[in-house]
Amino acid sequence: MAKSKNNAKKVSYISVPSQIINSLSSSSLHSLLLSPKKSSRNRFFGLNSYRSPVFWFLTLFLFCFLGMLKLSYNLDPLVPFSPYPCVTSQPQLQYSLFKGHTRSQLGFVSNGEKNEKKDQEVGSVDARELKSEVGFGSNELKDESLKGVVDFQGGNSDGVEEETEFWKQPDGLGYKPCVKFSGEYRSLSELIVKDRRKYLLVVVSGGLNQQRNQIVDAVVIARILGAALVVPILQVNVIWGDESEFSDIFDLEHFKRVLANDVRIVSSLPSTHLITRPVVERRTPLHVSPQWIRSRYLKRLNREGVLLLRGLDSRLSKDLPSDLQNLRCKVAFSALRFAPPVLELGNKLAERMRNKGPYLALHLRMELDVWVRTGCNHGLSHEYDEIINKERKQRPELLTARSNMTYRERKLAGLCPLNAMEVARLLKALGAPKSASIYWAGGQPLGGKEALLSLTREFPNFYNKEDLALPSELKPFANRASLMAAIDYIVSENSDVFMPSHGGNMGHAIQGHRAYAGHKKYITPNKRHMLPYFLNSSLPTAEFNRIIKELHRDSLGQPELRTSKAGRDVTKYPVPECMCTDSHTRASL
């Protein structure tokens, strides 16, 4: 009996898995623990039971147990218990979740998950994969659960670096403008500017930048002949009907003043020469030398006193003596300054772009006449391609060259302008950020805004002069294509990065200007080599971008020697004649 009595005093316990306990609410546990007992045991809860130490022990245990459950489930809203104890900043967590990363992707491991070794390993691997894929450069952390948050806060480090790289300027190798003339040149200048017998008249044609090139050559030819230059006459443009005169576009007084020691500039012929019948030359050969000019014109000019030249485009050789090359640079980069009203508005629009941050200027060649002249189609639709082909058949003389080539052959040879989709892909591959501010210069593209959709979808911050200027500011320049082009030129020249969609006079002029200003970034699309990759749809984006960057590594406006290739214009490549540095740097080119 004693043994039985001792056994009755023993307490038995049931082992219950923690998962079951965790799944029950506190009220359920409470009712379970305090469930009614059989009548034979009712005496245990009688009045005498309150005096028993066992009762008070169980009561204390129950309250402690309920308290622990309360903490585990965060039942009390006043207790600031985070399910992610390693995260110290709630805004950081919200930012991470806002970006669309799940807890496992960010490397978070909850208390329950810590009991499962496999889940913990997966969470760690996800965090490492996220860091590897996005390229975050955060320091390693001892606590694996923090990696996701800290790595994400390290944010777009690669993206930021890529954006910074896009705006980075090329190494100018220390080259600076150094227009200098020999002693012989300076001594001849005194005689030339005093001469009152010989006068050169020139008629320049084409668009603004064609006219600029011809004016530069006119000054040099006047110097070769020792003649005074009458302010160039701008031929009315047959395409745009622009009747602007020299002084409407350029600062005439500045032009005269800068060149005062090189060539005498006069506004008109003196009365003594008005009745003189000038020597007229309409068909000057291409790329003539100073010797040819003197032998051809000097004797007749001395006799008649006036020489009239037309169509000077590319007539003067690009390979001239050093003094004449320096004169070319002096005219192009110093003497030909835009007229004050044009310069004022152009600088104002450039400043408005600058207020948006660094900006890219694009010269888009997508007008109807450009497609016709190049023999190319822009591929917007079959309807627009038919318009181009019809115009080309009606005016075959507009086709510039290589008429025996098909459109595809021209395209693969790099002879066609880039369309909007190709410009967008190129810029993205080169690392241009989507938020980049872009100023686009050029006439209205064939197809209007529809032709630009591929570009504006990728780069929504897209502006031209009409977007930036007030209507009243542009009104004085309305229907004056050359003045509008001059405004585009000023905004483009002041940009952080410039890229033309096709070669042309404006692109060449700005390339030289940006080089002379310290080799500001200028992207030259390597069309011939890059277009085959554009046509390869199976090429992964990362590989495509790598190839495009490699193709343009040396086409970002770095110094290039004009003399490295025959026939280069010094106003496009001012090194070495018009820009200089120490001999060691020059030799490194």
UniProtKB/TrEMBL annotation:
Q: In which pathway does it act?
A: Glycan metabolism
Instruction: Give me any GO biological process, just one.
Output: fucose metabolic process
GO MF annotations for this entry? glycosyltransferase activity
What's a Pfam family this protein contains? Answer: O-FucT
* Top-level taxon: Eukaryota
Q: Give the GO cellular component terms, alphabetically.
A: cytoplasm; membrane
Residues annotated as signal peptide = none
Query: Membrane topology per the record?
Result: Single-pass type II membrane protein
> What are the entry keywords?
Carbohydrate metabolism, Fucose metabolism, Glycoprotein, Glycosyltransferase, Membrane, Signal-anchor, Transferase, Transmembrane, Transmembrane helix
| Similarity-based family | Belongs to the glycosyltransferase GT106 family.
Which PANTHER family does the record cross-reference, listed alphabetically? O-FUCOSYLTRANSFERASE 20, OS02G0726500 PROTEIN-RELATED
Protein name, please? Answer: O-fucosyltransferase family protein
